[in-house]
Write a structure and sequence with these properties.
Chain A: Keywords: FAD, Flavoprotein, Oxidoreductase. Chain A: Belongs to the acyl-CoA dehydrogenase family. The complex is a heterodimer of chains A (406) and B (257). By secondary structure, chain A is an alpha+beta fold. Chain A has three domains: 4-147, Butyryl-Coa Dehydrogenase, subunit A, domain 1, CATH 1.10.540.10; 149-255, Butyryl-CoA Dehydrogenase, subunit A, domain 2 (Beta Barrel); 258-405, Butyryl-CoA Dehydrogenase, subunit A, domain 3, CATH 1.20.140. Chain A has twelve helices and ten strands. Chain A has helices spanning 18-26, 35-52, 56-62, 67-76, 94-105, 109-128, 131-142, 257-293, 305-333, 339-364, 376-384, 393-404, and strands at residues 148-151, 167-171, 174-185, 192-198, 207-213, 219-221, 235-246, 250-251, 295-296, 299-300. Chain A is globular. Helix content of chain B is 30%, strand content 29%. Chain B has seven helices and eleven strands. Chain B has helices at 40-59, 76-86, 102-116, 135-143, 196-202, 212-215, 243-252; strands at 2-10, 12-14, 36-38, 62-72, 90-95, 120-124, 147-157, 160-167, 170-177, 180-184, 207-211. Chain B is globular and about 70 Å long. Classes of the chains: A alpha+beta (406), B alpha/beta (257). The A-B interface holds A 14, 21, 24-25, 35-36, 39-40, 42-43, 46-47, 75-78, 81, 85, 90-92 and B 32-35, 37, 78, 81-82, 85, 193-197, 199-200, 203.
């Protein structure tokens, strides 16, 4: 655990605007990300500023899923960031991926979060699929011609994911799946569903992973859920009633389902955490803009020490979250044996802290923050769910405490 | 078959979205720790060169080599990398930490033109930091080449370019034989994003470096900046009672009549 404390002072990424200028000047020679990674960040931020930001509120209000814009992003390589290049992926590492997702999230957290889930599915097929499966599905997934959804959670199995009860019984040339998945992002719109189902006994080792396609007999979807946030992506139940899945759609060996799911989720912890960072970053930018113009008691809010101290605390908190996320991403890239715990800690910290930053930003907006005319409410509502999904923060704490008490 | 060589000039400037301020010494705009990017008109120029190349390849009538050049300090390479990521083939960096005014840049570009012998040089109509709107015109003068400035449309024929220019009176079309100078205006095209694969590929594209001494150019500034100040702070508005009152204020207070 001592290694946790050895991160030396690093430079604040320049995206914090003027707040960062002062700090970055002092720590000029250290940088968390290098020049190449900054190029990727610039691209993602430019795309977010132009394609996401102007539409964010409209998509949230109208629950619109912007498939055309997603595909424009896929043309630039956002559809398979850490998928291998031979099938159309961008072949980047987890650190670059985190930087890109954080930048995209400043424009729209909900849409970026969907992109991260799609990317996770792409990686799972890339990493655990046969060559035939990779070639069959990934070119269309990386281009987002086909969208992908990840189906683990069930009405009776959330934090206790290993308690899932969807069954998959082999019958000749097919597996027959029965059960339902809940809260599935993209369900109904996606073409490809990665479903974890029970092929063997109880517990994680009795599960397997299947590639289920829209149009397979026995696959249907529940009603579109009405949510507090993440409104630019549809969320539905995925229902399998004697759903027939060809045997060649088994992904990895029987019994490997949960292990595959968990490996995918490690990366997802970084991804969801990165989306939270983007929400926090944008919230700070919004707050800074507001406090420079809003006047009370004869001066702008920015001239009050409370405002100044509050913003300083927000920036400090964001920095700590960002460092933890990027450190964990680096560990994943290096296949460090403890990467999973660091991803868990980073996820808890970043999602908890970022929500507070969005909340603090709303407070700095005063009454205006409560109006939907202002963007801050969207960042707050979107980032709230990051504390719940991808492994609830409570589950993350379970994972971390296990490594401490071993 | 036409094989064109296109030289595109780019400049690294303070990003257009930054709220600039005058530095503490009152001598220049503050540029330290401020976000920089490629001059927007140069992005348009890079995009145009790449579109010309893509059109030739698509029509199977030839191809083009797009060379992007920038004169400035080491950080100018960031701008060159962006252009390479958009699709330029190779880059040239003329490195200098000195102040480079338009005439100096034009002379440096002339030296590069003499080395590379391009069929076209594309520049932005002006840089958004100094708004000089001189470099393209001076380069044409030094080379004795035809120039078409403020281009909103370009068509290439056989050793010939037809350019629609946006001018104060409206729109004008000119024809110029190649080799020629083109400067870009806002409506010429919409620059593409670099894609992630292209950003990665750009790292492997050639980037050649020259110093001012290598090119034997005198870059001594001919213009001296006497003063830099922020514009006067915006005053509150006033309501006027009548047209006469308005005319009186325009004449005697605002002094614009």
């Amino acid at each position: 655990m001592a290694s946790l404390l050895t991160i030396s002072s690093r430079r604040v990424p320049t995206r914090l605007g003027r707040l960062a200028s002062a700090v970055s000047h002092q720590t000029r020679h250290y940088s968390v990300i290098d020049h190449d990674q900054k190029e990727l960040q610039n691209l993602a931020r430019a795309f977010a500023d132009k394609e996401f930001a102007p539409k964010m509120q409209e998509w949230d209000e109208n629950q619109h899923f912007p498939i055309d814009v997603l595909r424009r992003g896929a043309e630039l390589g956002f559809g398979g960031l850490y998928t291998r290049e031979d099938v159309g992926g961008s072949g980047l590492g987890r650190l670059e991926t985190s930087v890109i997702f954080e930048a995209l999230s400043t424009g729209d957290v909900s849409t970026t979060a969907y992109i991260t889930l799609h990317n996770m599915c792409s990686w799972i097929i890339d990493e655990f699929g046969t060559e035939a499966q990779r070639q069959k599905y990934l070119p269309q997934i990386t281009s987002m011609e086909k969208l992908a959804s990840y189906c683990l959670t069930e009405p009776g199995a959330g934090s206790d994911a290993a308690g899932l009860t969807t069954t998959a019984v082999k019958k000749g040339s097919h597996y027959v799946l029965n059960g339902s998945k809940a809260f599935i992002s993209g369900a109904g719109a996606s073409d490809v569903y990665l479903v974890i189902a029970r092929t063997g006994g109880s517990g994680p080792k009795g599960t397997s992973c299947f590639i289920v396609e829209k149009g397979f007999k026995g696959l249907s979807f529940g009603k579109k859920e009405t949510k507090l946030g993440w409104n630019s992506q549809p969320t539905r139940a995925v229902i399998m009633e004697d759903c027939e899945v060809p045997v060649e759609n088994l992904l990895g060996a029987e019994g490997r389902g949960f292990s595959i799911a968990m490996k995918g989720l490690n990366g997802s912890r970084i991804n969801i955490g990165s989306c939270s960072l983007g929400a926090a970053q944008a919230s700070i930018e919004e707050a800074v803009g507001h406090v420079k113009v809003r006047k009370q008691f004869g001066k702008v809010l920015a001239d009050f020490q409370n405002t100044q101290f509050k913003l300083a605390d927000m920036a400090t908190s964001l920095l700590s979250s960002r460092l933890m996320i990027r450190h964990a991403a680096r560990m994943l890239d290096q296949n460090h044996p403890n990467a999973a715990s660091y991803c868990a800690m980073a996820k808890v910290h970043a999602t908890d802290e970022s929500f507070k930053i969005c909340d603090d930003s709303l407070q700095l907006h005063g009454g205006y923050g409560y109006l939907k005319d202002y963007k801050i409410n969207v960042y707050l509502r979107d980032s709230r769910v990051h504390r719940i999904l991808g492994g609830a923060n409570e589950v993350m704490r379970m994972a971390v405490s296990r490594t401490l008490l071993v | 078959m036409s094989n064109l060589r296109i030289l595109v000039a780019t400049k690294r400037v303070v990003d257009y979205a930054v709220k600039i301020r005058v530095n503490a010494a009152g001598s220049a705009v503050e540029t330290a720790n401020v976000k920089h990017s490629m001059n927007p008109f140069d992005e348009i120029g890079t995009e145009q060169a790449i579109q010309i190349k893509e059109a030739l390849v698509k029509a199977k009538t030839g191809t083009a080599e797009v060379i992007v050049v920038s004169c400035g300090p080491a950080k100018s390479q960031e701008t060159l990398r962006t252009a390479l990521a958009m699709g330029a083939d190779r880059a040239i960096h003329v490195e200098s930490d000195e102040e480079l005014q338009p005439l100096a840049v034009a002379k440096l570009l002339k030296a590069i033109v003499e080395k590379e012998k391009p069929d076209m040089v594309i520049l932005g109509k002006q840089a958004i930091d100094d708004d000089s709107n001189q470099t393209g015109q001076m380069l044409a003068g030094l080379l004795n080449w035809p120039q078409a400035t403020f281009a909103s449309k370009v068509e290439l024929g056989d050793k010939l370019m037809t350019v629609t220019r946006e001018v104060d009176g409206g729109v004008e079309t000119v024809k110029a034989p190649l080799p020629a100078i083109l400067t870009t205006d806002l409506r010429l095209n919409v620059p593409r994003y670099a894609s992630l694969p292209n950003i990665m590929k750009a790292k492997k594209k050639p980037l050649a470096k020259f110093t001012v001494a290598d090119l034997g150019v005198d870059i001594k500034p001919r213009l001296q900046t006497l003063k830099i100040a922020e514009p006067p702070k915006r005053q509150g508005g006033k309501l006027v009672e009548s047209v006469d009152d308005l005319v009186d204020k325009l004449k005697n207070e605002a002094k614009v009549l």
